[in-house]
Design goal:
The complex is a heterodimer of chains A (about 775) and B (about 425).
Chain A lengths: L16 H14 L26 H12 L6 H15 L9 H9 L4 H5 L4 H9 L1 E4 L6 E4 L11 H5 L17 E4 L5 E3 L6 H10 L4 E4 L4 E4 L2 H12 L42 H16 L56 H9 L26 H14 L12 H4 L15 E7 L4 E6 L5 E6 L3 E6 L4 E7 L8 E4 L8 E5 L2 E5 L7 H16 L12 E3 L3 H5 L2 E6 L6 E4 L5 E5 L8 E5 L4 E3 L11 E4 L5 E5 L4 E5 L4 E6 L6 E6 L5 E6 L4 E5 L8 E3 L6 E6 L5 E6 L3 E8 L9 E9 L9 E6 L6 E5 L3 E6 L1
Antiparallel strand pairs in A: 1-2, 3-4, 5-6, 7-35, 8-9, 9-10, 10-11, 12-13, 13-14, 14-16, 15-16, 17-18, 18-19, 19-20, 21-22, 22-23, 23-24, 25-26, 26-27, 27-28, 29-30, 30-31, 31-32, 33-34, 34-35
Chain B lengths: L7 E8 L10 E5 L4 H12 L7 E5 L2 E2 L4 H6 L8 E7 L5 E7 L4 E6 L8 E6 L3 E6 L4 E6 L5 E7 L2 E6 L4 E5 L6 E6 L6 E7 L9 E6 L3 E6 L30 E3 L3 E4 L5 E6 L6 E6 L3 E6 L4 E7 L4 E6 L5 E6 L3 E6 L8 E6 L5 E6 L6 E6 L4 E5 L8 E3 L14 E6 L3 E6 L3 E6 L3
Parallel strand pairs in B: 1-5, 14-18
Antiparallel strand pairs in B: 1-2, 3-4, 3-5, 6-34, 7-8, 8-9, 9-10, 11-12, 12-13, 13-14, 15-16, 16-17, 17-19, 20-21, 21-22, 22-23, 24-25, 25-26, 26-27, 28-29, 29-30, 30-31, 32-33, 33-34
Classes of the chains: A alpha+beta (about 775), B mainly beta (about 425).
InterPro entries (chain B): NLE, WD40/YVTN_repeat-like_dom_sf, WD40_PAC1, WD40_repeat_CS, WD40_repeat_dom_sf, WD40_rpt, WDR12/Ytm1
Protein name (chain B): Ribosome biogenesis protein YTM1
Subunit structure (chain B): Component of the NOP7 complex, composed of ERB1, NOP7 and YTM1. Within the NOP7 complex ERB1 appears to interact directly with NOP7 and YTM1. The NOP7 complex also associates with the 66S pre-ribosome.
């Protein structure tokens, strides 16, 4: 902030002697600068270069007259006011005739002589302002003092500050004719803005002792005091010029005649004052020993400083490149055709030359014409050198280069950390036993005690195997040549029942002859109960009929026949072993049927067809029901009879479903080769989609007690996974692929059609289209 | 390791058994010698007319095929090598085939008959048969409803257990075989039987039976004067189609102890050979349990890696051997106190090891049979490889795939095995 000269504004401090003094001094230097507009009534006093601090009595007379009207009670106040004024005046430097002298003084460090040697002339001058006049009211003489304007140091803001809009952006008033409001709420009009010429002139004339005031939107002139303050601050001095940083020392105790005769303490001088310091000695000895040992060489001449220079011809660039440095791509090395003496096959023949010359310069494949010189000496200067360099530079300049940061990531680290299958034993690893059917096995099931295995095949037979040795213990010819589509053991351990489905028929079976006496009796009774109590099954549907087989069939374990519409392809039991559901895709609205064995009652829970139903599944713990359509898995509440949730696997054709025994997860297999794992609470999108099969997935199954699941496919393989579900809801399920079991051969493009796990052991059973049922053991 | 040709090694040869003893002297033998030359040396010393092949051991371990490397690696040639030898087991030789109508579920060789061999086989068609060594069926025991799953010799009598949950004892010495006892404590098919001979000839045999429900029952073979258990009124009389020989109703007997502890099926039981009061049971719940038969309490339980299919006790104190679903044969040392201490695992079978039979006298030898159709003879001192794999000829026109072996027995000289091929095959395997 360049402030060259400073003049006080008269309007601000009318009675301020300092201001007057400034004005006077400045007037001497450049009175021509003063314009009438800049001065108000008090500056008229300055027209005479009167000897300061004399007060022009004429000008004061008006003030005195005006004061006459005032109450005489104010007199004492005036006097007290004048005292305060005096106090402030006392610190002001005295007048001096010489301006340069003054500036010198003002710029110097304030010396106390400037203050204290100054006679209080103002006091005299002020006293001179009092005069005695005869009062009109009393007719007596009274002393009239000069009307005192408020001092410079008094609250000037209230006086000066007009705009009362507060600290708001000035832009708010940009489009207004006013710039704000004064304290009385009147608009303050926008001052005339100076045009550029005026500003320029002002600048060149050097009248730059102004600062722009945002509030008033005009340039404000700085007062001399402000100017002085700024100057002191510029010099790094204390802003208050009244402060004396170097006062003289006042000597109270020292000096002539003030010497102390008696000591403060009578204690004798301690011994240590007379002894050399032990620690200093130690330090010195340390250095001395170092010098003796040669560790410190005193007065060792310093090595001359190494000259630093830049090896301009050095090949290696010692400067490390900037982090954002993108080096120019290298030009390809010259080829044979660019040689000065290329083999003749590189040279152009007439036609090539003509072609080269005719093509546009931009389109030429070779930018130059190869030429042959017998020796290097004959090679002329390269005419295109400059252009070529220019093109290269242009290329580098115009073609933006991208910094490609190389990812230094070990690809191994991106593979999720899965536990080794070795740690997840036991799981099935080898084919221990094969159970041989003569026809395609469609479905298998293991009884809840883990002793028997039932399989249903295309030749119409349902066979029961002793699973530990692989011997067929019993069989029925249910389908009589037609395929049996599905078979499932009742989960109730108190009875030994299984349900098989064939065309238009659901059959309840029990291998009575091979069972123990108690079990066979309980099984027969369970199936017979509703025949014995026919009133229990009151509601009979027209096309669903429960038939009692004849006695010889019953003796062989054929307990109940249920005629149903369509061909049921799947049967699932409810966990309690009384209800079972069948799915017949071709039965329209009665595609899903829920049968109750104890009452011989069947119902179709879905009045309308829900699309082509693929599979159904009971929830293992809650009264809920999963329905697998071609694309979606729907979860129904059986009590409320409402749709709870729809899962969106994002697959085209679902084939199979199984629900985790804990009831919070399910897996879905699809004909488009994928297996989806859903967390029921996690939303309708799959948690994991597994695609390891090469062909359609036919079956998926969870192990009832161990953290295992498996999927089977038309590619003839069975894949075993570790699928651990944690009790902690925050931890997602851990899925680890464990083993691929390939023990089936393809038959007519069909591979492994069904899977089942042993209820307690890590045994997996797979049913193949090649007529084999395999047991995989660990 | 320089194979120093012509280098001689000082060797001292000991005979483990009492026969084939040679004077204990030091022999310098060339380092290139093999088992054959060493056997020849001993045969020459013994002046045997017919050469006996020997197996050689260094200390207790079988040197086996490594004998050559031991000899050639015997570096300094000064240290004396101590070798033990036993007459080696000859490869089993097929003797005869005993054809059945259905799968053979178990076989048992009568060990008490010294001059004549008798074989008991049980079959899935519900028949237990006794055969002589000329492949002739001497006795046919009809009585079980459904398959007979286990059979054992009780002295000269026979006990069988079947899927009809009964254990039946038969007297076959009389001109007409008759059922003498019927044990009906089981509620599930009887899976295995074990018999312990009495300490005194006057006392009855003790008998263990296990079922698929996890129950092990202890019986004796004393015939009570009256029925100890009421007859099951629900028992369908009609089912006893084949039980015509048992015209006289057998005495129903109650067990001495019901040993409960297994949480799954029990697939095998065995008495400890050295101590009749201890028994082992093999459970599908992955445990081998030790029972104190005298008080009828479980004394110990060992956990295996997989379900056990069978158990037998070696002729070595406290050592049991079991066959597993994971294809292994485990040798258990039940004398030490830790919970799972498989002393050795014998790997080699290709499928579930369905039956094991230990050598009646040797503490090291056993036979095991698996569902892949192989019977293997093992020496527990060389666990890496079986001594022999018995090749069974497919019988009864069965295909090679249908060869599951369900039962094996070995009396030290004869090896009997039977299974899916509906035949018991007899091999000579002397050890």
């Amino acid at each position: 902030m360049a402030i060259s000269k400073k003049r006080s504004r008269d309007s601000t401090k009318g009675g301020n002697a300092v201001a007057q003094e400034f004005d006077n001094k400045l007037d001497i230097n450049g009175a021509e600068e003063l314009s009438d507009g800049d001065n108000d009534h008090l500056s008229s006093d300055d027209e005479e270069p009167a000897e300061f601090p004399e007060i022009n009595p004429d000008s004061d007379e008006d003030a005195g007259d005006s004061d006459d009207d005032a109450n005489s009670d104010n007199d004492s106040i005036h006097s007290s006011d004048s005292d305060t004024s005096l106090a402030s005046f006392s610190s002001v430097p005295s007048t001096s005739s010489n301006v340069s002298d003054f500036i010198e003084k003002a710029s110097k460090k304030p010396d106390e002589t400037d203050y204290y040697s100054q006679p209080p002339k103002q006091k005299l001058g002020f006293e001179a302002t009092a005069r005695t006049v005869r009062s009109d009211a009393t007719g007596e003489d009274k002393t009239v003092y000069r009307n005192i304007e408020p001092g410079y140091d008094s609250d000037s803001d209230t006086e000066e500050q007009q705009n009362a809009i507060g600290d708001v952006p000035a832009e708010w008033y940009e489009d207004m004719p006013h710039i704000g409001y004064d304290i009385n709420g009147k608009k303050i009009l926008k001052p005339a803005t100076k045009d550029e010429l005026e500003r320029f002139l002002e600048h060149t004339e050097g009248d730059a002792d102004t600062v722009p005031s945002k509030n008033m939107q005009q340039d404000m002139k700085l007062t001399p005091d402000e100017l002085r303050l700024i100057r002191r601050l510029e010099k790094g001095q204390v802003p208050d010029d009244a402060f004396d940083p170097y006062p003289d020392q006042v000597e109270f105790f020292t000096g002539k005649g003030k010497e102390m005769v008696t000591p403060i303490s009578g204690a004798p001088e301690p011994k240590r004052r007379f002894l050399p310091s032990k620690w200093e000695h130690e330090k010195i000895m340390k250095i001395a020993r170092a010098i003796r040992a040669g560790r410190i060489v005193p007065n060792k001449p310093k090595a001359p400083p190494k000259p630093t220079f830049y090896a301009i011809w050095s090949n290696t660039d010692e400067h490390t490149p900037h982090v954002m440095d993108a080096p120019a791509p290298q030009e390809p090395p010259p080829k044979t055709i660019e040689s000065f003496n290329p083999p003749p096959e590189y040279l152009f023949n007439e036609q090539e030359r003509k072609e080269w010359e005719e093509t546009d310069e931009q389109d030429r494949k070779i930018k130059f014409m190869p030429q042959k010189y017998s020796n290097l000496r004959l090679v002329p200067a390269y005419a295109n050198l400059l252009k070529e360099r220019f093109d290269r530079c242009l290329d580098l300049y115009l073609a933006p280069r991208v910094r490609r940061t190389k990812l230094n990531i070990d690809p191994e680290s991106l593979v999720p950390k899965l536990p080794s299958p070795r740690e997840l034993k036991p799981f099935p690893i080898y084919n221990a036993i094969s159970y041989t059917h003569n026809a395609r096995v469609r479905s298998i099931s293991v009884d809840p005690t883990g002793i028997w295995l039932a399989s249903a095949a295309d030749d119409g037979y349902v066979r029961v195997w002793e699973l530990s040795v692989g011997r067929c213990a019993y069989s029925w010819n249910i389908g009589e040549g037609e395929p049996v589509h599905s078979v499932e053991w009742c989960p109730d351990k108190e009875v030994s029942l299984l349900v098989a489905t064939s065309e238009k028929q659901v059959t309840v079976l029990s291998p009575l002859p091979i069972l123990t006496t108690g079990l066979s009796k309980a099984s027969a009774q369970q199936a017979d109960f509703a025949f014995a109590n026919p009133q229990a099954g009151a509601t009979k549907t027209a096309d669903i009929r429960y038939a009692r087989p004849n006695e010889s069939q019953r003796e062989n374990g054929l307990l109940v026949k249920i005629e149903v519409p369509g061909t049921p392809k799947q049967v699932v039991w409810h966990r309690k072993g009384d209800y079972f559901a069948t799915v017949a895709g071709d039965a329209g609205s009665k595609s899903v049927l829920i049968h109750q064995l104890s009452k011989h009652q069947s119902q179709a829970p879905f009045k309308r067809s829900k699309g082509s139903v693929q599979k159904v599944q009971f929830h293992p713990t809650r009264p809920q029901f999963f329905l697998v359509t071609q694309r979606y898995v729907k979860l129904y509440d059986l009590v409320q009879q409402t749709l709870l949730k729809t899962f969106l696997p994002g697959l085209r054709w679902l084939s199979s479903i199984d629900v985790h025994p804990s009831g919070d997860n399910l897996i879905v297999g699809s004909y488009d080769r994928k297996v989806c794992w859903f967390d029921i609470d996690l939303g309708d999108k799959p948690y994991k989609t597994i695609r390891y099969h090469n062909r359609a997935v036919r079956a998926v199954k969870y192990h009832p007690s161990l953290p295992l699941f498996a999927s089977s496919s038309d590619d003839g393989s069975v894949q075993v996974f570790h699928g651990r579900v944690f009790d902690d809801l925050a931890t997602n399920a851990l899925i680890v692929p464990l083993k691929v079991l390939k023990c089936h051969t393809l038959a007519n493009g069909l591979g492994v059609l069904d899977l089942h796990w042993h209820p307690t052991q890590p045994f997996l059973f797979s049913a193949g289209a090649d007529g084999l049922v395999n047991l995989y053991s660990h | 390791m320089s194979t120093a040709d012509g280098r001689n090694i000082p060797v001292i040869l000991h005979s483990i058994s009492n026969e084939h003893k040679i004077p204990e002297e030091m022999y310098m033998i060339p380092s290139t010698w093999k088992r054959f030359q060493l056997s020849q040396l001993i045969n020459n010393l013994l002046e045997n007319v017919s050469a006996v092949p020997f197996d050689f051991f260094i200390g207790e371990d079988s040197a086996g095929g490594k004998l050559t490397s031991v000899l050639s690696n015997h570096s300094n040639g000064e240290e004396t090598l101590h070798l033990s030898y036993v007459p080696s087991i000859l490869p089993p030789k097929h003797l005869s085939t005993y054809e059945h109508d259905d799968w053979v579920s178990s076989v048992s060789i009568n060990r008490t008959a010294h001059n004549e061999h008798k074989f008991l086989t049980t079959s899935y068609d519900g028949v237990a048969s006794v055969w002589n060594s000329r492949s002739e069926k001497t006795v046919e025991l009809l009585g079980h409803v459904g398959p007979v799953l286990a059979g054992e010799w009780v002295g000269n009598a026979v006990v069988t257990g079947g899927r009809d949950c009964t254990v039946r004892m038969w007297d076959i010495d009389a001109g007409k075989p008759s059922q003498t006892l019927q044990c009906t404590a089981h509620a599930a098919p009887v899976s295995a039987l074990a018999v312990a001979p009495p300490l005194l000839p006057s006392e009855p045999h003790t008998l263990l039976s296990s079922d698929w429900d996890g129950l092990v029952c202890l019986w004796d073979t004393r015939t009570p004067s009256a029925h100890e258990v009421d007859a099951d009124p629900e028992e369908p009389v009609k089912k006893r189609r084949k039980s015509k020989p048992a015209a006289v109703e057998a005495v129903r007997k109650a067990p001495i102890h019901r040993l409960r502890g297994h949480t799954g099926a029990v697939n095998g039981v065995s008495f400890a050979k050295e101590d009749q009061t201890r028994a082992y049971s093999a459970g599908a719940d992955h445990t081998l349990r030790l029972w104190d038969v005298g008080v009828g309490l479980e004394s110990d339980s060992r956990v295996a890696a997989s379900a056990l299919r069978c158990v037998d006790s070696l002729n070595l104190h406290g050592v049991a051997v079991s066959g597993h679903v994971d294809r292994s044969v485990c040798v258990w040392d039940t004398r030490s106190s830790s919970t799972s201490n498989v002393a050795q695992k014998l790997w080699g079978h290709g499928s579930v090891v369905e039956s094991v039979a230990s050598h009646p006298h040797s503490p090291h030898h056993l036979a095991s049979a698996a569902l892949d159709g192989n019977v293997k003879l093992w020496d527990v001192r060389s666990p890496k490889q079986a001594l022999f794999t018995v090749v069974r000829n497919p019988a009864n026109g069965k295909t090679e795939k249908q060869n599951k072996i369900l039962g094996v027995d070995w009396d030290g000289g004869l090896l009997a095995s039977g299974g899916e091929d509906c035949a018991m095959q007899l091999h000579e395997a002397r050890a």
